[in-house]
Amino acid sequence: MRTLQEFLTHHAWDHDALLARVQRRIVTRHLPAPGRQADADDDRLGVVGLIDETSVPKKGDKTPGVQRQYCGARGKIDNCIVTVHLAVKHGEFLAMLDSDLFLPEQSWDLDRRRCQEAHIPEDITYRAKWMIALEQIERAVANGVRFDWLTFDEGYGGKPEFLRQLEERGIHYVAEVPRNFRCWPTPPKYHSLQAPVAGQSPVPAPFAAKRADNAAAWGKPFLRQDWRTVRLDRQTLGPQAWKVKAAQVYLQRDDGREGKASPRPTDRTYWLIVARNVQTGEVKYFVSNAPPRTALKLLLKVAFCRWGVEHAFRLVKSEIGFGHFEGRSWKGLLRHLILCQAVMLFVAEQTTRLRGEKSAADDGADGEGLEHRLPALAGASPQVVGPPARRVGHPLSPGPQPRRQTIPASVSSTTNVAL
After folding, report:
1. Are strands 283-288 and 173-177 parallel, antiparallel or unpaired?
2. How far apart are the first and last CA of the chain?
3. In terms of DSSP H, where are the helices of 57-147?
4. What is the pLDDT of residue 407?
5. In CA terms, which of 11, 12, 40, 133 is 20 to 30 Å from 378?
6. pLDDT digits (tens, 9 = 90+) for 74-89
7. 176 and 153 in contact (C-beta within 8 Å)?
8. What percentage of the chain's residues is helix, strand, coil (to nearest 5)?
9. Contact 83, 53 (CB under 8 A)
10. In the 8-state DSSP scheme, what is residue 111?
């Protein structure tokens, strides 16, 4: 264990170059070339980016980023670290693209002495989790990844600035949003909000943006349609049945500040989807910037394929040692995360080989049963493409920079969707 910690913390090797090589290998061997149609058995879903975070319980106060915060692994507030991840799914192929540590603001970023003790560079500062995810997307795109879709939970979907930044980069998303997400189910009559009258109920004026749950329950586009039943067959868990409705709505314009929205509606419409679990009664809301003619079945497949990243987390934690880092160095922790990604890619490739299949983009692969030698990913490498890894001494730009690559359902029906 001590030798491993020495290798992670003190040995001279380029972890950013390793990350870039992992991403390029995924692009060249496992993702379709630009303009190529998705596999027929993938129902034209294409390349889906999965954004999520996970937590690892830790004792003490020396591990970089550790503090008492919500720990999903324990289901409560506990001492842990939180990491943000970007995964990619194409057909049956699933791999991690990027990983980064969430550095809490109060207990770490504002305590630079504590950061120095954990060997955290001065230019590594607090960033909101959605900002970390945006940096990861830019690195992946710079290394050749072309996303047909991005999907993520309400922790990211509830950030209007994040949705705006994705749209400015030309990326389609299906985002889970909180029930209090604001929208207009029909075009508003006015472009300003009316202040509540003293002594009267604080119910929003008729032209004010509605909560997503209110719009889905009482909005005219939703009242005019019946529930549709969609059955989802999941990879590692039992199937689920969801009742769904969907319609085009107007969102609140984002005014460029995190958490702030303008009272004016957007110029275009967006999908608002409400899904209710038949067995548990759980209700989810999704927003998408996909074109209005996009099939609802496709949007649901994208929305619910985010379960794949949970499967990836279970794999890396139980089989690859994702949570076993015991050091006190930021660089060592980052290298540990990247090495776990490389191991997961190796496992994914061997799983594909043992199925007797070839990846869609690997037209020159050898026959079934022949193993492919894994190249020396950590050796000397060409210059890493894209924005410098985790250099965040300046705020995010409002859009992509030149140097970056940047239902109608009037009758109740049932659809089977395999994820």
Report:
1. antiparallel
2. 39
3. 112-117, 129-142
4. 34
5. 133
6. 889 999 999 999 999 9
7. yes
8. 30, 25, 45
9. yes
10. -
**Distance from CA of residue 196 to its chain's centroid?**
38
- Dig out the tokens for 367 from the structure: 């026959």
Give the distance, in angstroms, between the CA of residue 60 and the centroid of all CA atoms in the same chain. Answer: 29
CA pseudo-torsion sign 380, 84, 73, 287: negative
Q: What is the pTM of this model?
A: 0.79
CB 336 within 8 A of CB 99: no
User: What pLDDT does 386 receive?
Assistant: 53
**What's the confidence (pLDDT) of residue 402?**
34
In terms of phi and psi (left: phi > 0; alpha: psi -120 to 50; beta: otherwise), the region of 297 is: alpha
Per DSSP, the residues of 260-286 read -EEEEEPSS-EEEEEEEETTT--EEEE
The tally of CA atoms less than 13 A away on the side-chain side of residue 375 is 12
In order along the chain (419 residues), what is the average pLDDT of each group of 10 residues? 70 88 94 68 76 92 92 90 94 91 94 93 94 97 96 94 94 96 84 52 63 93 92 74 94 64 80 95 96 93 86 81 82 91 88 66 43 46 50 42 36 52
β-bridge pairing 283-288 and 270-277: antiparallel
Per-residue pLDDT tens over the stretch 23-57? 999 999 999 987 665 544 444 789 999 999 999 99
Two structure tokens written together for 277: 């679990």
Neighbours of 314 (CB within 10 A): 13
Residue 49 token pair? 């980016």
* Residue 134 to residue 399: CA distance in whole angstroms: 11
| Helix, strand or coil, per DSSP, at residue 83 | strand
Q: Give the separation between CA 30 and CA 23, rounded to whole angstroms.
A: 10
